[in-house]
Each structure stands twice: as structure tokens, then as C-alpha cells.
Amino acid sequence: MEPTRPGSWHTRSPAGSLSLLALSVSWVNRRKALIVDLARPSLRARSIGLYYYLIRSVAIAPAAFVGGLLWKLAPTLPFYFAAGIGVIGTAAFALTVDEPQAG
């Protein structure tokens, strides 16, 4: 097995690939759990379907195009833009979702 280049973000080891897969799966499961927790019991399946096939798809569809435009301005700009969107999303979540079971 070839070693990765210094400074490379990826790994060629099976363990690294599996840990990245496990991390991805855990985020998907947490997102689904949040949707299920926030939806009324009679609308849970519909809520997950609406999120994944309508809201998420519509939000992701133009992302590559916008990322390409930002990349033309400056190669680091898409990453800063994504970080800003992440901070805004985290703040909106923290301010609007009430978790009565949280410590």
C-alpha cells in the first residue's frame, strides 16, 4: 500500500476509509433522528421524505454552480462561504430548537 503524500487530506488505508464512512453514517442518522423528533407522529415518514426529496435536493442542486462561480473569484472563497453558511445554520438551530431532554 502506498503512503499518502504529506499534507494530504485523504488516506488510502482501509481503516481511514471506514472511519470516514462511519462518520458520514452517524451524521445521516442524527439528521433523521432530529426530523423524527420534531415531527408529529402521524407525519414522521412524510417529513423525512419532504426533507430529503424536496428541501435538501433543491438546496444542493445549485451548490456546484455557485461553488464554481465562487472558485473563479478566489479558490478559497467556496470554503469560507460554506463555513459561513454552517455557522448561520448552527446559530439558527441553537436559537430555534428546544430540546427539553438536554441537560
Structural commentary:
The protein is an all-alpha fold and 103 residues long. It has 2 domains: 16-60; 62-98. The chain has helices at residues 14-38, 44-60, 63-73, 77-96. Helix 1 (14-38) crosses helix 2. The chain starts with 13 loop residues before the first helix and ends in a 7-residue tail after the last helix. 0% of the residues are buried.
How would you summarize what this structure contains?
The chain has 103 residues and is mostly helical. It has helices at residues 14-38, 44-60, 63-73, 77-96.
Chain-averaged pLDDT: 75
Structural class: mainly alpha
Proportion of beta-strand residues = under 5%
Secondary-structure element pattern, one letter each: HHHH
What overall geometry do the principal axes of the alpha carbons give?
A: elongated
Largest sheet, in brief, is: none
Poorly predicted regions: none
Number of helices: 4
Tell me the distance between the termini.
46 Å
Question: Cα-atom Rg, whole angstroms?
Answer: 18 Å
Q: How much helix is in the residues?
A: over 70%
Count all strands and give the number. 0
- Count of domains: 2
